[in-house]
Amino acid sequence: MSNKIASEKRDEFRRTMRAHHLWRNAREVLNLPKNPDSQQWLDAAEYMQIDITPYTIDGYFSEDRNDYPPLEGAKPLPVSGNNDLAAGLAELIAKAMPAPQAPEIDESKIISLIHEHSPKSNIVTISHITKEGEKRDDMGTVHKDFQKCIDVLNAGENLQMVGPAGSGKTTLARQLHRALFGNRDEMPEFAYTGALAQEYKLFGFVDANGNYRETPFYRAYTNGGTFFFDEFDGSLPNAVLPFNTALDNGHCDFPHEMGKKHDDFVAIAACNTFGNGADRQYVGRFQQDAAVLERWVPVLIGYDEDLEQSLTDNKEWCQRVQKIRASIEELKIRHICSPRATIRGTKLLKMDWTISDTEDAVIWKGLEPETIRKIRQHAGV
Ligand SMILES: Nc1ncnc2c1ncn2[C@@H]1O[C@H](COP(=O)(O)OP(=O)(O)OP(=O)(O)O)[C@@H](O)[C@H]1O
Ligand SMILES: [Mg+2]
Predict the structure, then answer these.
(1) pTM for the structure as a whole
(2) Hey, which residues does 134 pair with through a beta bridge?
C-alpha cells in the first residue's frame, strides 16, 4: 500500500486506529513501536483490514471531514474544541435515553436472606456421663456466648455477665447451672439473689429466738450449687463488700458459724454495667469496690439477634424490632428495645393487635412523639 497519510490528519487517524477493536492484536502481531511511522500505520490498517482509500485523496488524506466514513469497530472519538456542541449533544442523548430503572429492592427479603445464610443460634444438647451411662440434656437454644461462660466456670472462676436489659443473662445462668449439674441424681440448688441493700440478705441473721435465718447464698456456699447474684451492680457496695472474702477464701463468717465453701459452689453475677457506677441508661447502678470487681471474670452478653429470631415465629416483626433497635443505638437515644419487645409483640400481634398499638406497648413505651418520629424515619419503618 503506497498511500501516505496527510500529515494534518495524522493525529485524528491515529486516535481512530487506537480506538479500533483490533488495535491491540495489530500491535502485538506487527510488533509496532510506541510511535509507528507512516508505513507502520498503513501496515496496521491493512492488518486490521481497514480500507484506507476512502480516507485519502490522490494518495493523501482528505482535509474535508465529510469525506471520512467511520471506521468499522471504532469507538466514538471524544468531541474536543467545541464544548457547547458536546454539552448540547450530551443533553439530547440524555433526553433520548430511557430513565435508568433501579432494580426494586425488597429490604425485608434481603434481611431474611442474610438471616437464612448467617450462622444460626446455638441449639445445645449437653451429654452428662453418669453412673447409669450417658444422660443427654437438651438445653434448647442458648446465647452465642454460652461456651465462653462455661469456660470461665470450668476454669474455677466467678463469672460476671455484663449486658443490657433483656440480653438473656438470667436465662443463661439457669442453663449454665443445668449444664454444670445436670448429671446429678438430685440437682443442687440454683440459689438466686437480686440487688441487695443490706449485708444480712446475703449472710442471713440470727432472729430473736436465736435461730439462724439462712439465705440462698448460705445454702449454695455450704451445700454446693449455683449462686446467682442478679442485678449485682444495683446492690449497695457496702452490702457486697464482705462477699469478697467469701469468694476468695475457703470459708465464710456467717452470723452463727464459720461456713466452709463447698467444692461445687459456683458464683455467677449479672450486671447491666461493668460495676463502674450508673451510666445514662442504667441510673440505679452503684460503683462497686475495685476489690470486689477483681473477684469476677466479666463476659459481655450482648443482644444475640439470631437467638432472638429463634424465639419468635413472626420473623417480620422481629426484623422490625431489630431495625428500630439499631436506629435507637445509632441515634444514641436513651431507650431500651430488647428481645422482650420481640417476644411480647409476637404474642400481642397473635391477638390481632395492630402494629401501631403493639409498638406503642412494647417498644415506644411513653417516648416523646418527636423522638419516635426520628427513630422511625431513621429505621425506615
Ligand atoms: N436462650 C433462651 N431461650 C428462650 N428464651 C430466652 C433465651 N434467652 C432469653 N430468653 C427470653 O428473653 C427474655 C429476656 O431474657 P432474660 O430475662 O434472661 O434477660 P436478662 O439479660 O436477664 O434481662 P435483665 O437485664 O432485664 O434482667 C426473657 O423473656 C427470656 O425468657
Ligand atoms: Mg435478668
Answers:
(1) 0.68
(2) 129
